[in-house]
# Entry
Amino acid sequence: MQLAIIKIGGNIIDDEAKLAAFLDGFAAVPGKKILVHGGGKLATKVAAALGVGQQLVDGRRITDTETLKIVTMVYAGTINKNLVAQLQARGCDAIGLTGADGNSIRAHKRVHPEIEYGWVGDVDSIDAAFLTGLLLLNKTPVFAPITHDTRGQLLNTNADTIAQELARGLGRSFDVSLVYSFEKSGVLLDTNDEDSVIPRIGPAYYEELKRKQAIFAGMIPKLDNAFTALRSGVRKVIIGRAEELPRLLDGKAGTTIVND
Amino acid sequence: MQLAIIKIGGNIIDDEAKLAAFLDGFAAVPGKKILVHGGGKLATKVAAALGVGQQLVDGRRITDTETLKIVTMVYAGTINKNLVAQLQARGCDAIGLTGADGNSIRAHKRVHPEIEYGWVGDVDSIDAAFLTGLLLLNKTPVFAPITHDTRGQLLNTNADTIAQELARGLGRSFDVSLVYSFEKSGVLLDTNDEDSVIPRIGPAYYEELKRKQAIFAGMIPKLDNAFTALRSGVRKVIIGRAEELPRLLDGKAGTTIVND
# Structure
């Protein structure tokens, strides 16, 4: 059975028109699907309004206790429930989840030799049986980027990682397409030219692109993650523009990354 | 099959020690169960910190657009996810829901001839099949007091009403005990004497108590609702102290309201 796992970035959530176009496309995707959303700027705005200072290290938010309260409110409350309600309005029977809900994603607090990330979680495992049960009830899980340690602690967790772990964990039972949708058309040969999308990348071509330094350096971690996912049972990884979702899944837009 | 539907009030949520005692008891309840929680003072605190004014009419919060954002954050985000994580830590496989999640509780915006309540929902129906599916997956639904109108609008909804509608809707498939747990020992003959709990109230005795004005007037709507629930298929309604939950269900504490 096919399953599409689709991650949308915070830039899409922050843009009402792009988000509406994405949700139209997402609701129209036939069959089983899961949405994973990032955070967006709302958490930063709410933190500022509440006078909670924000600290970033290497682009990652340091999640102190007050920040965890804010991301839990904003990601699992505001953003998740509004996405669910908007999908319901489009006839998509969405159910919002964090990793604590149904014990669906178990994680542990990140341990790092130099950086104290705070309440940030690294994923240990997902409950594939429970998620399969929801999918068979014809529900569409919508994940906020929050997990738990099974001992009562919520943990702020990277949405790309959640999408990848879900894809890996469900790849044993489903034919999984993992989609990273964002504000670009795909993997570009020329980062300033949205028409330079590379339609298909396999391992050999990827090595060649890296050797020639033909792709934007910021793309390399995303592509490395994509190949890791492919090696652990995911059928294909697709990177492309959120508003073009149905065409991404049909291979008519974006970049499809495959293992052959 | 037996099902316990338990509502906890905001006063319990606001009290860390009482909440921990309640959650210990809730996790220990054997078999199928559902938790419905109210709001508590956190929404008021967050609204004040964000500079959003609050309006109350007849003890009900008027839910303007900014207030709806706050209750969604606080009820469905902070409170719901912390309850879920704390139940998971106690071995109870909780899953947090609003009425939008899985389209589980459909409502409409309240229409009132004189008062504009704002984004407040009155419940139309619950999805008993979906909730039964979750219960059969051995999950424990935890409801935040938020529903939706199926057209994209979230609605602030009274938690007592949600508990009652769940009890009615699930009363066809389950042998439902509906518990309103709060900071009092039960229905009291003397409102200042916690030892004056009436252990059992049937319809005839209730009429007698009302005629003699022997019970606190504030209890009457709760009891009227209890008898309405009993007439629509709920087996028993129990009112009592949140920390005594297992004893309430065993009939060893609190007031049990029955239809005979």
In short: Residues 45 and 88 of chain B are 27 Å apart (CA to CA). Chain B touches chain A through 41 residues (CB under 8 Å). The longest strand of chain B covers residues 175-182. The longest helix of chain B spans residues 65-89.
